[in-house]
Amino acid sequence: MFDLSWTEILVIGVTAIVFIGPKELPGALRTVGKMVAKARGMAREFQTSVDDMVRDSEIDELKQQVKRLEYGGLEREIEAAIDPKGELKQAMTTPSFDAATESSASPAAPATPAPVVPAAAAPAIESEAPAASPTPAKTA
What we know:
The protein is mainly α. It is built from five helices and no strands. The chain has helices at 6-20, 25-82, 87-92, 97-105, 122-128. It is rod-shaped and about 150 Å long. The protein starts with 5 loop residues before the first helix and ends in a 12-residue tail after the last helix.
């Protein structure tokens, strides 16, 4: 722990006997032993609380990841990995015809021109339409 050699421990023991005395040395060693045990217990408790905090933070992180994946996050992450710019998604979507009818129905939208019917198809359309009564030309 403190990286002491045997000679250093011997020197510490001899000075303890000289300064503390042989009579009070066992009581002093007992007190030192209790303090060391208390310090180890506090260090162990601190390490346990740090480990719990790390474990809790990892669990919170995992919970957040699960929530993201639970609400469609997995699909978004896959889409972002495959098509980050959204080009494939845009190419695969069909145009909405509702948007075209809504824009033509609005009063501010310009009127669309009538479709041009080819000459070959024109007689077929006239034959289907009811014949209109000719109006007499007015002579003045």
